[in-house]
């Protein structure tokens, strides 16, 4: 089940990456690269920071093919994208929670403690989007819109709580997926935001 | 002594990171993340480039807690910050030299030669600030104001010189800390700058 | 032969990096750092992603000296640079193909398959320039001008094709170098570009 979610997630993230590249008028090669970085960058960052080799896309190069194809498809169906916006937000929410779960579990399997595991989950969840925004020369959106990194953080701790309570893995996964997904959708619907810190020293 | 300095340094760097994030109006989560990257990013970059695992914050997750708390405290005492500016410059100067020393010693312990050790020290000293500026979408300040990277480089070579002369570690540390700290403060006071290279090909 | 090409390539790339830093009015330290990142960043990125330690410049710190000297020389001969522009485009084209070949061969030697090897070649070829543009706060140029990343990709697959056909290494190298170099020069001469994806959702 998690693998299916992962494949949906990298496809959806690749498509948001391709749209970002399109907003900057990049060529097709750039579109494919930004799509791959958005979809696989969070996991790669986690693996590099934890020294967990080989990286996912080195072990499974077919994921690179999947994200590249998703990027090229996005180019052709771009005019449809406006109408699919809500579908995207849903897929992206699913992806965020799925990425976070995978990152959290990876760190636990490597024997790290809960705090590091939650950071690992959050890096996996949000860093693809951060790298996308850096490459497109934007201020990372992650920290400026509705609850996003916080949903990732909350999902990681929800899963860790379930693990601590020794729930069966499938239960822990389902509860976290449902809870994190719902939290993200509610945040979008009601524009829940973290308080902002505005500092002006001039 | 170096550990105490290190803790002061990551706290001070976390606070400068939080202020940068505040200038961009990020939410609290973004503030905490930028603070952690500023404080721990230089050391992480060094460890990833040298293949030195586990990273500091993976081994000591309590440092993440310290930098996060420092970031949140910064949010609440921000109005005070203007008056504390000189204190900050002093702490930041101490931190720069302490980070550089730690980076240099880490590379020596791993068996690298002097040139690589000095680069390792400089990466540890200045890369946190560079990553902060990239995430906040600024041109890294490090290369545009008073001697900063150069102080780091000079400190690394001062320590390596002391090591070469076979001074006792505590002497080498003290001389470098004092010398580097003084050099940085003098550079701020008298606006010492590296010459700039301005190239316009249009 | 490849080593000679590599040395020419890192020198040429260091000089383009130094010019970029000069356009942003950075100080000499910044110029040297941007030059080193431009010349050695692609290979470092590849080695970190593949877990291939030690990195090139850790093993051969003399390359850092070479790129630093190239950067400093650039500062002094900058007024000449305008007239040398075509020489630079030629050296840069050679460097792109040489970097790509080295990256592709490194991945093959580590036992990776053709797809990962071609990605490894492309990362080595183009990431130095991408990092340069990120540090200088530009949108990476790589994806907005004449065929560049595509030349790298095509060169990688040309070499892999020769390897598959079991040509002698020297033949595979020569064919790829000549082909990739010619393709890049033709692309510059006739302004061949990848189609662009322009998406505007406002």
Automatic annotation (TrEMBL), chains A, B, C:
Main location as per UniProt: membrane
Keywords assigned by UniProt, alphabetized: Cell membrane, Membrane, Transmembrane, Transmembrane helix
Domain Glycine transporter: 4-78, 90-161
One CC-aspect GO term: plasma membrane
Compartments reported by the entry: Cell membrane
Membrane topology summary: Multi-pass membrane protein
Transmembrane segments: 63-80, 87-108, 114-135, 147-167, 173-192
PANTHER family given in the database record: INNER MEMBRANE PROTEIN (PTHR30506), UPF0126 INNER MEMBRANE PROTEIN YADS-RELATED (PTHR30506:SF3)
Family per similarity comment: Belongs to the UPF0126 family.
Name of protein: Membrane protein
Organism: Pseudomonas rhizosphaerae
């Amino acid at each position: 089940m998690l693998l299916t979610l992962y494949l949906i997630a990298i496809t959806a993230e690749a498509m948001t990456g391709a749209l970002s590249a399109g907003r900057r008028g990049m060529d097709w090669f750039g579109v494919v690269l930004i799509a791959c970085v958005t979809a696989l960058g969070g996991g790669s960052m986690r693996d590099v920071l934890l020294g967990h080799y080989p990286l996912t896309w080195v072990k499974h190069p077919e994921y690179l093919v999947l994200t590249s194809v998703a990027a090229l498809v996005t180019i052709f169906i771009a005019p449809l994208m406006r109408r699919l916006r809500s579908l995207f937000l849903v897929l992206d929410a699913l992806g965020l929670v799925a990425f976070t779960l995978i990152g959290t579990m990876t760190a636990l399997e490597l024997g790290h403690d809960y705090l590091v595991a939650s950071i690992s989950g959050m890096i996996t969840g949000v860093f693809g989007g951060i790298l996308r925004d850096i490459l497109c020369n934007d201020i990372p959106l992650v920290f400026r819109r509705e609850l996003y990194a916080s949903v990732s953080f909350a999902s990681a701790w929800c899963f860790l709580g379930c693990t601590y309570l020794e729930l069966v893995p499938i239960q822990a996964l389902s509860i976290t997926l449902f809870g994190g997904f719902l939290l993200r959708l509610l945040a979008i619907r009601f524009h829940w935001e973290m308080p902002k810190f505005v500092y002006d020293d001039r």
